Amino acid sequence: MSTERLKEKLNSFPKLSVGGAELTIDFDDLDDFHTEKARKELRETPEVVEDAFKVLCDLLADEGELYVPLEKEFLQRFLRKCKWYPKSALKVIKNFYKYQKNHPEFFENLIPSNERAIYTSGVLTPLPHRTADGVRVVVIENGRKWNPKKVTLNQIVRGSMAALELAMLEPKTQVSGVRIIIDMEGLSLSQVTYFTPSYASAIIEFIRTSLPCRLKGVHIVNQSYVFNMVFAFFKPFIQGKMRERLYFHGKDKASILSYIDKKTLPKKYGGEFDFPEEPLGESFYENACLYDEYFEEIGRYGYVSKV
């Protein structure tokens, strides 16, 4: 499903409103701010871009069992992630699709219409406004709003993977990246029992080796002593740059403002945005279903067996 076709489809349906603001995919090309940011942070110049596409396409041609489109629109998400170094981009592409193959619990039949539970739960909510430095923000409420009997941890991951895929359609997000707010308020001892070392290992592996975007930070808020039990599963696998991108704010609303400005940040975290307390519910699910055809198409990418 081409971007133009997807845009036409989305324009024919009502927009999703989050806190009175429109949440939609931004297909626009880079503005002056992001063009300059891409040049400074990602080495993005016409000469570098042209050479990187050529080299990456040549490298992919040698990957006989890996099927991905060779269009610039698709490959640039991986190249921007890797600052336009084609060999590094190839490694991320291969890791990304190997991870999908090895973790069907997160990716098999990942189509929004199959994920009603997560979209109606209120656990996962993308914010409509970018930060002042262009970053997309997603809120995951893993505490009071999360009922493990209705929404499994795997379903939370699947919903997050789908949200990430849509964010990567945005050129500006490819350049500026994503921040994740994980709200642990109300996390109970009974919820802790659903976490396992194998789950933690799988999540960290994806972030460390296969994430197809620039992760600018994971911000943990409203955590209590109970959260320490959960973090104990993840801590052994967190190394290097990941440690630098993990922030613990507790109930200190001022600290998170160093990373996410007031206009973008929900009021309950110290910002000015009217984040809905009630789940978006059916409207979120119905909007997500508009992308089914797109996900069906990209679900055919990856490692395929030779005939």
Architecture overview:
It is a single chain. This protein has 307 residues and is α/β, with parallel strands linked by helices. The protein contains 16 helices and nine strands. The strands form three sheets. It has a five-stranded mixed beta sheet. It has a two-stranded antiparallel sheet with strand order 1-2. A hairpin with a 2-residue loop joins β1 and β2. α3 crosses α5 and α4 (72-81) crosses α5. The radius of gyration is 19 Å and the shape is globular. The protein starts with a helix and ends with a strand. The mean pLDDT is 94.
List strands and helices in order, with pairings:
Elements: H1 3-11, E1 16-18, E2 21-23, H2 32-42, H3 46-61, E3 66-67, H4 72-81, H5 86-102, H6 104-107, H7 116-121, E4 124-126, E5 136-141, H8 153-167, H9 171-176, E6 178-183, H10 189-192, H11 197-210, E7 215-221, H12 225-234, H13 241-244, E8 246-250, H14 253-256, H15 282-289, H16 292-298, E9 302-303
Parallel strand pairs: 5-6, 6-7, 7-8
Antiparallel strand pairs: 1-2, 3-9, 4-5
Features:
alpha/beta; 16 helices; single chain; five-stranded mixed β-sheet; two-stranded antiparallel sheet
